[in-house]
Design brief:
heterotrimer, A mainly alpha (287), B mainly alpha (275), C alpha+beta (367), A: 287 residues, mainly alpha, MetI-like fold, 13 helices, globular, B: 275 residues, 11 helices
């Protein structure tokens, strides 16, 4: 018994507005993209014939094929870095920090930037990474380098640094959640069964946090694949990934090509999510 | 090595990694903040050539291309509308999920889809939709619809989590005391879920206020603040951009701080003041 | 040739253990000796330090002072995985991602036993605990009783010197508890492994323990065989904690012939001194009398008598308990076997008494 009866019409009517909204604003547009990507002919009209020519033309271009691989490679790299980094941070914050005050302070320092604008954070990397930027000055004053490193800004290195900074929280958050839901008694039980800490980690902690790792990796994967803001701001239009290509085609009013790249991006994402779902059941995370 | 030494060593290594990352995460924002106070002749990088409020003054007085005031107002209004809509829709949707209507599993994934679908695809797809329907895109119509679809999944998940922790026996108690379902919801449920609702509203506001990818495709000719910032970045990077960045970041931080203090005060009030 | 004398090592020895958390003292000067194969129950109210003591033995907490010896070996600074113990946790702490068989074999895996041997031992242990049919299940698919068996099998498979049990049946349904208690007791007898069982339930402690250790406020109040503690509580806390005692507080009077006169608000009573030194006259002290040892309407030969008024009569297990009130609102309990006819009605005035030898004088509490 609660303020809503199970299976009542009221529940259905309450659910309807949000559902319709999502269908209209997300599902329908995404389906439209798929449809448009199959349009033959010239103009923007629903009467165009259906064809796979757009895909054939796009995939025939070798540099585009490379771009797809490059985007996947970039995502894989960022996933690896944020995965390790995020796990270390999550483990430190939930397990190693014992003082509640420090834990809250560090958590806030970790999470707060997430609530500020990604665009602004990406722009902030420009003065940080530049030739006279903070990072170069720091390295010079520490005596680690003699002349500023040009390659920080407008390079893949710079993009990767910005992406790691932006997305580590995504990799770490679900792990924090899973780690903090492991009862202390489980570790202790393993220890009284003669398992030293390293074994406790590999046999108990890691398997129990695996769903968190996978969710985090999915989030990073999706975000890096679709990221075009960091690439534009920190990469200075010198580099492009699939996301930038979508924008480029769209600004050139090449609707069909935009749709083709979008669908390819979608397929990559679907494959990624499907693989992840094979490893863990996302629904269990909520329970 | 002694096991305690090893454990402590792991702690130090992980701590160094964490602190290092936090510094790395905050350093760019700190740089931007510092440079926003650069002198009049200062550029977008060090040296600053003095300390001044010149760029903030510029920001305030500008009235042409680089006038950020109208887009800022638009962003603010849009974020307010998005926040309000998100609260209503996600409270309804989460309450509906408690009523386990037919197809609620599928419904859950439908809402989650908005979280997974990248902004660039949603924005582009919605742009096609409006074009086919012959609708002119604008920040307060098309962009509004898309913004809500972005904030809604976050609000929905927040409210689901809030209802998960909510004890339905409280409602049962109210119902056995003669309250109708509507009264029980308004008098018992609503006050208890209120912190979660405020959280949802915050999510709705800040997600909309900072949204870029979806807006880019759907806002039409009058852009929001992120669009204006990006346009200015394309033209020329000036410390003025750092100033606007610092202002918005500071605003986000102030809102977060105010809400945290609010929650803390509420929690203290509920606990009752210790003698 | 004479065989060398066999020195029987104690299974466990605690030497003046002390543990503080900030300004809170959790365990204060606790010493304990556990003979091989002994069943020890740590009994006390929640927060009395019994669980912390157990965790110190397990190595999950490190005492600030004092020493711990397991099997005669000093282990005070050793981590849990280097101690010859196993532990059963209150809510069993089963690993949610491991099957029952995997879980039970975990301890042997950690000892780096060959795979074949582990499989064989696991099969044996599962069979002996009658859970073979559960081997492939996950903890989420088990009932409370089944979880308890799995946790026990997991702990016992390595044949530790000591098994530590932290409220091991507290999470079970009430109806299951008695059966499980009997099984555990016979398991302990069969294997000869020392059990240290932490509980707040005196029925558990008294029916299971060879040695019962009563703790309160981080200290051991009294330790001994169950019948000693039941018949001769040494402190007012122990007397009050054990059901069915009337505790009287008063001042020492004159001692004569091994009987001490005690002045209480209810009157003066004679209490045998037993092995205690004669306290200084006027010093505060206490004694107890078991509720079933009281006599109704005693004759003149009974020296200790109180005039009371019966407030309520209620059934307390197999007993009929009378709650009576004396001078100044002091409450006295009188228990009678429930099957006997009721002889006192509510509201009735009555005199109760007891034979002098049934009074139990407590150790003087340090002021």
């Amino acid at each position: 018994m609660s303020t809503i009866r199970a299976g009542s019409p009221a529940a259905f009517w309450l659910a309807l507005p949000a559902g319709l909204w999502m269908v209209l604003a997300v599902v329908l547009p995404v389906l439209l993209i798929v449809w448009v990507s199959l349009w033959g002919g010239q103009g923007v009209s629903p009467n165009n014939p259906i064809t796979f020519d757009n895909y054939a033309r796009f995939l025939a271009n070798e540099s585009y094929r490379w771009l797809i691989l490059d985007t996947i490679g970039q995502a894989a790299m960022i996933m690896a870095i944020t995965g390790v980094l995020g796990y270390c941070i999550a483990y430190f914050l939930t397990v190693k920090v014992t003082s509640p005050g420090w834990r809250i302070a560090l958590f806030l320092a970790f999470v707060i930037p997430f609530w500020t604008s990604t665009l602004i954070r990406a722009i902030a990397f420009v003065p940080f990474l530049g030739v006279n930027g903070l990072l170069n000055q720091l390295l010079i004053s520490l005596g680690l380098i003699e002349r500023p490193i040009q390659a920080f800004l407008y390079s893949r290195l710079g993009i990767s640094m910005a992406q790691v900074s932006l997305y580590t929280l995504l990799a770490s958050g679900p792990v924090v959640y899973m780690l903090s839901s492991i009862p202390l008694a489980l570790r202790e039980a393993a220890m009284t069964l003669k398992a030293p800490p390293i074994i406790v980690f590999w046999r108990i902690i890691l398997p129990l946090t695996l769903p968190g790792i996978v969710i985090g990796q999915v989030l990073v994967f999706l975000n890096v694949l679709a990221d075009f803001i960091t690439v534009t701001t920190v990469g200075g239009n010198k580099l492009a990934f699939l996301g930038n290509l979508i924008l480029l085609f769209y600004e050139g009013s090449q609707i069909r090509s935009t749709a083709v790249v979008s669908v390819l991006l979608m397929i990559l994402m679907l494959v990624g999510v499907t693989v992840a779902l094979r490893v863990v059941d996302i629904r269990k995370l909520g329970s | 090595m002694h096991w305690k030494t090893r454990s402590r060593l792991t702690g130090w290594v992980l701590g160094t990694v964490t602190i290092g990352f936090l510094l790395f995460q905050w350093a760019p924002m700190f740089t931007m903040f510092t440079l926003s106070f650069a002198g009049e002749t200062g550029g977008t990088t060090f040296p600053m050539n003095g300390v001044s409020l010149h760029w903030y003054r510029n920001l305030w007085e500008a009235d042409l291309f680089d006038d950020f005031k109208p887009p800022m107002l638009r962003s603010f209004l849009l974020a307010l509308a998005c926040s309000a809509t998100t609260v209503v829709l996600s409270v309804c949707a989460a309450q509906a999920m408690r009523g386990r209507f037919r197809g609620n599993g599928l419904y859950f994934y439908l809402l989650l889809l908005g979280l997974m679908a990248p902004g660039i695809l949603v924005g582009f797809g919605f742009a096609i939709l409006t074009r086919l329907l012959g609708i002119e895109g604008s920040w307060n119509t098309t962009a509004y619809v898309v913004h809500v679809s972005w904030a809604l999944p976050f609000g929905f998940l927040t409210m689901l989590a809030v209802f998960n922790r909510f004890d339905p026996k409280l409602e049962e108690a109210a119902l056995t005391l003669g309250a109708t379902r509507v009264i029980a919801f308004r008098r018992i449920t609503w006050p208890i879920i209120l912190p979660g609702v405020i959280g949802t509203a915050l999510f709705g506001f800040s997600l909309s206020y900072d949204e870029y990818a979806r807006t880019l495709f759907t806002a039409g000719s009058d852009g929001t603040l992120p669009l204006a910032v990006m346009a200015q970045l394309d033209r020329q990077l000036t410390p003025e951009l750092y100033a606007i960045g610092s202002v918005t970041t500071a605003m986000s931080l102030i809102v977060i701080a105010l809400c945290s203090i609010g929650f803390w005060l509420r929690a203290r009030a509920l606990r009752g003041r210790p003698a | 040739m004479a065989a060398p004398p066999v020195i029987r090592q104690l299974d466990l020895e605690l030497r003046n253990i002390r543990k503080r958390y900030g300004s809170f003292t959790a365990v204060d000067d606790v010493s304990l000796k556990v003979e091989p194969g002994q069943f020890v129950c740590l009994l006390g109210p929640s927060g009395c330090g019994k669980t912390t003591t157990l965790r110190c033995v397990a190595g999950l907490e490190e005492p600030d002072q004092g020493g711990i010896l397991i099997g005669g070996r000093e282990v005070t600074g050793d981590p849990p995985w280097k101690r010859d113990i196993a532990m059963m946790f209150q809510d069993f702490a089963l690993f949610p991602h491991m099957s029952v068989a995997r879980q039970v074999g975990f301890g042997l895996e950690m000892l780096k036993k060959p795979k074949a041997e582990i499989a064989k031992r696991v099969a044996e242990v599962l069979a002996s605990f009658e859970i073979t049919q559960l081997a492939e299940r996950r903890p989420g698919q088990l009932s409370g009783g089944q979880k308890q068996r799995v946790a026990l099998a997991r702990a016992m498979i390595t044949e530790p010197r000591i098994l530590l049990l932290d409220e091991p049946i507290g999470a079970l349904d009430y109806s299951l508890r008695e059966t499980v208690m009997l099984e555990l007791k016979s398991l302990q007898r069969r294997t000869g492994i020392s059990f240290i069982w932490v509980t707040h339930d005196q029925n558990e402690a008294f029916s299971l323990g060879d040695l019962v250790v009563v703790m309160n406020h981080a200290k051991i109040e009294q330790q001994g065989p169950p019948q000693d503690i039941l018949s001769r509580p040494r402190t007012p806390f122990v007397a009050g904690f054990i059901q069915g005692n009337n505790v009287f507080h008063g001042k020492a009077g004159r001692a004569q012939g091994g009987v001490l006169e005690v002045e209480t608000p209810l009157g003066a009573f004679g209490v045998p001194l037993l092995d205690l030194a004669t306290p200084a006259p006027g010093s505060p002290l206490s004694f107890s009398v078991r509720a079933e040892r009281l006599i109704e309407r005693p004759d003149e030969s009974v020296p200790n008598r109180i005039a009371l008024r019966c407030i309520t009569v209620e059934y307390f297990g197999a007993f009929r308990r009378h709650v009576l009130e004396g001078a100044g609102g002091a409450v006295v309990k009188y228990d009678q076997f429930g099957a006997l006819p009721q002889s006192i009605r509510e509201g009735e005035q009555i005199t109760l008494g007891w034979a002098a030898e049934n009074g139990v004088l407590h150790r003087a509490t340090p002021a």
